[in-house]
Amino acid sequence: MIKKSPAIVLRSVDFRESSKIVTLFTPDEGKVSVMVRGAKNPKSKYAGLMQTGNILDVVYFQKTTRSVQSLSDAAYRQKTFNIQLDYDKLAVAMALLEMTDQLVHSHENSNDLFRFTESVLVWLHNADGHIRNLFPYIQMRLAELMGVGLQSEQDNERRTGNFVYMNINKGSFSDEPDDEFYFRLTYSQTEYVKDVFGNKAASLLKKNLNISDLKQLIYHMDVYLKHHIEGLKDRKSDVIFEQLSMTT
Fold first, then answer.
1. Which among 114, 49, 52, 44 is positioned nearest to 83, based on CA atoms?
2. pLDDT value of position 179
């Protein structure tokens, strides 16, 4: 059967002398592995197309008896070259794709997750500002898409301190801790969360969130996601995050 689909390149491995086996993320079939013949040849049209994070339109031959399908054709659906030219953008994109790779499975409809991943990659391509600030927002949106989204229970009128609590078991932000498993947020982390819940994602690019608060917020979200999503592993791409040119 011939299948035509939008796709995002999640990863690839070399196969023999000139080919690659590429894992694609598609909206209707989840993860699909395809054989891309000649992809290692610099003169092949697939040489540049099969880079991690590329957004494509693909055609492949699907046989249910095979775990690896045969790619017939591919072309750019959206061009996101700027991501490869900016270290901060690349770090955020790689972390997003690694998480997506863990969350999506083969032979499952993942349209909402696909559309979100595609939109973030396009956003990164076009965005200016403090790109590093986007990742906690991405984590929160992924939690929502996986059915374990965090809820805000903070009463701004009664708020007396400069922080709120992130309750891991209950999955909420509140003025008081809900149980013994919680994190207390700093003032800047609280303001960040308020912007997320206020649908002000674009404003996150303008925030001068210091490196300590940012990394801590990412850690808090990782703990939350691992607590609620079985089998989620540490990201190897965090090595890139550690090298980001962040300033306080």
1. 52
2. 87
Tokens describing residue 29 = 């079939």
Q: Please state the domain extents for the chain.
A: 2-79, 82-242
Burial of 100 (0-12, 13-18, 19+ CB in 10 A): buried
Just give the CATH number of 2-79.
2.40.50.140
Average pLDDT by consecutive 10-residue portion of the chain (248 residues)?
A: 96 91 97 93 88 96 91 96 94 96 94 97 94 95 97 64 87 92 95 90 86 94 97 85 54
pLDDT in tens, 78-102: 999 999 999 999 999 999 999 999 9
Antiparallel, parallel or unpaired: β 69-78 and 55-61: antiparallel
For the 82-242 domain, the top CATH level (class) is: mainly alpha
CA distance 110 to 103: 10
